[in-house]
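Q: Got a minute? One more chain.
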Amino acid sequence: MSTAVVVGGGIAGLLSAHVLCQRGFSKVILLDADAPQPGEGPAGGVASMLEGAKHRGGIPQYSHPHALSMGGLEAMKALLPGFQEELVRRGGVELDVARDLRFFDFGAPYARGPSSLTIVAATRHLIHSALHDEVTGCNAGKLTVRGSCRVAGLLWSEDGNAVEGVRLSGSGEEVRAHVVVMAAGRQSRLPQWLEAAGHQAPDASKVDAQLTYTTGFFRMPKDWDNERWMGHVTFGRPHGLRGCGVFPAEDRTWQVFVYGVNGEQPPTEKKQLLEYVASLPDGEIFEALRHAELLSPLKKYGGAYNIQRSYDKASVAMPGGLLVLGDAVQALNPVYGQGMSVAAMSALALDSELATALAGAASPKQRRSAVQGLSRTFQKKLAAVIAPAWMMAAAEDIRYPATKVEGNGPAPPSRLMQACLDNVIRACHRKVENIELFFEIAHMVRPPSHILHPRLVAAALKEAVSSSLQQLWALLWGPSPAPAKKAE
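A: Always. Here it is, folded:
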């Protein structure tokens, strides 16, 4: 039918290229700033991950812990049937979130037990390699992946109202296309390119909790019992500024991240890192890691603030033939594990909008016209799809006292809404059913409105009453130990 160019070789770029091939584009060119490595086949372990990270400077979080949460997993399975099984075949670890993971939050552990919540934990290298292999294998003959290609700017139509391709850095080569998909990450220069061509750049909203985290890979102790837990996350909420997470990966390893916000800085030496972990309100992770073998250098990463660019607003007259998605639109605090899900669900939205736009287009000319006119409707559709992730991440980071908000950032949640969310989390201490409902919202399977599900509202009210009675007791008779919460 026509030619498409995708800028960016991450999750959003790969899946977008797949969608374009499947929706009838005869030629799709994926431009990757990094030099893509061939797929690794079966899991290559930590050594392969570290080697792959050397070639992936454009994905700074490549060597940090990853898990594919429910929203992203479901979207990838919709676009690539069998992808979950392929991840597991290569060494990814399927987890029941409520049974296999231990969460410590708001001063107590969540209830544990079987649930319908399934995620896959694996290194980013395994996920990326598997996705690259699946996408290129499905689209042989249509898809061309070009590595080490940096884009210097856009090619414009004579009237300046449509994008007709991109110009590469260095060589100045022009790559012509009927549609350009920008999936170049949070550092995308698209706003500057739009302004240089006389178009309105989108407003940006930024919420910065000044997150810093240190990560590493550990070998599980030989006698580790997975019935104890397979992964663990400790939050310092409601008032603490430190946290830690452990997720399994291929070859019986643990991916470990230790974070601090609002100026807290986790160390990069093992001894000091363990001391930092020991300061957390739950000692489970410390007890596990002090018996585990460190397999990789400890790496620190910062600057991962939440940023959202409003390409959907009426003030931004999107040129024809240009679509924007992935971190180029919305990039989030990675602690909440939403990045790959947002990318996958963005590609699924692209697939849906292309199907609708092309349904009534018979001739090649009509199809090209339909795709070129998709810019505005797609950005509006995308904004609705990714809004829940922004609400969860940005609103949560506003909790911390020194968090900085710039631009048209979200208003802090009302006291009533924040209290409701806090008590929903506390309700997860009691029942697995509450965890299922809450995590389906957090993992973008259900819309945020489901926070008002009658069961969650009732559970939140019960927690609010319990908390109020404890505060009244403390006011009248002094603090007393809170009664132990029993998982029902």
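A: The longest helix spans residues 454-477.
Q: Perfect, thanks.
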